[in-house]
């Protein structure tokens, strides 16, 4: 079995690649440039193919070694969720690429979605809820999914939309909450400025996210939208306090320094009932 991973050099992609190494499959990965790859991604068992998905070409499927499964993780511009480029540029580029892959012969597509598709809905969010995206990133992903669902009506293929919630781990964006916290601790700062911390979210370590993505990809009985989440609500304050405790260091939390984000609801987490049926 040949599995292609786009976005392989990104935060999630590198963990998905490592997880796939545990299975008997041929791994192919794309990167805009294959020279000077990060050292942890250099592996003789992985084929890296230079590819810019925005290129105007029709032979993507053949060029990318005719994979049996495509795990599509690529997406530019994060963690800027409000940029109009998400639907003005990214959306058409990604749809055209994926459409050409399907038309070329791909029969199993796995795409990373986002909990931002749910918009400002609060509480426990299940896959059966209607989407109401409230920022450009969530809107672009939501429309991409709907485009692909319609494409599957014309060109049948196995389609799995892994709706990602929050995650943390080594290699995450330097602007993420825990990355900034780690930097403050490493710098010996006495105080860490943050929001009030009472907002409720759903977090998983990125290693587990990668295991979930691969597990979903290697079966075809549970398809469509699948929430990738813990199903366990946690306050941001507790997440931060637990992280500090695990480091063994001490730092004072300056709660309420930053306002709460206006592009997401105050309290939401995922329903992982469907995910638990994946075997």
Report on the structure:
The protein has 279 residues and is α/β, with parallel strands linked by helices. The protein has two domains: 2-167 and 203-231 and 270-277, Rossmann fold (3-Layer(aba) Sandwich), CATH 3.40.50; 173-200 and 232-269, UDP-galactose 4-epimerase, domain 1 (Alpha-Beta Complex). The protein is 31% helix and 22% strand. The chain is built from seven helices and 15 strands. It has helices spanning 11-20, 60-63, 85-104, 136-154, 177-186, 206-217, 236-247; strands spanning 2-6, 26-31, 46-50, 69-72, 108-114, 123-125, 158-164, 166-168, 191-193, 200-201, 203-205, 224-228, 234-235, 252-254, 268-270. The protein has a seven-stranded parallel β-sheet with strand order 3-2-1-4-5-7-12, with helices on both faces. Helix 3 links the parallel strand 4 (69-72) and strand 5 (108-114). The model has no long low-confidence stretch (mean pLDDT 94).
């Amino acid at each position: 079995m040949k599995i292609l991973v786009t976005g392989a050099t990104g935060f999630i992609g590198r963990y998905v690649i490592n997880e796939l190494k545990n299975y008997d499959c041929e791994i192919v990965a794309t990167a805009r440039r294959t020279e000077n790859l990060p050292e942890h991604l250099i592996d003789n068992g992985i084929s890296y193919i230079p590819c810019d998905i925005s290129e105007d070409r029709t032979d993507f499927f053949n060029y990318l070694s005719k994979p049996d499964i495509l795990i599509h993780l690529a997406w530019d511009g994060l963690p800027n969720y409000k940029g109009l480029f998400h639907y003005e540029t990214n959306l058409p580029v990604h749809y055209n690429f994926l459409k050409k892959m399907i038309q070329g012969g791909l029969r199993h597509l796995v795409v990373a979605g986002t909990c931002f598709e749910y918009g400002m809905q609060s509480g426990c969010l299940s896959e059966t809820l209607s989407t109401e995206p409230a920022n450009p990133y969530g809107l672009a992903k939501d429309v991409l999914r709907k485009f692909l669902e319609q494409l599957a009506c014309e060109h049948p293929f196995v389609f799995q939309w892994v709706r990602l919630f929050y995650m943390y781990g080594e290699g995450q964006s330097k602007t993420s909450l825990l990355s900034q916290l780690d930097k403050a601790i490493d710098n010996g700062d006495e105080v860490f400025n943050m929001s009030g911390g009472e907002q409720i979210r759903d977090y998983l370590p990125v290693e587990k996210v990668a295991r979930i993505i691969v597990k979903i990809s290697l079966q075809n009985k549970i398809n469509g939208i699948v929430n990738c989440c813990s199903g366990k609500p946690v306050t941001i304050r507790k997440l931060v306090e637990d992280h500090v405790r695990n480091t063994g260091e001490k730092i004072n939390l300056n709660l309420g320094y930053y306002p709460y984000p206006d592009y997401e609801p105050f309290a939401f987490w995922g329903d992982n009932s469907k995910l638990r049926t994946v075997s």
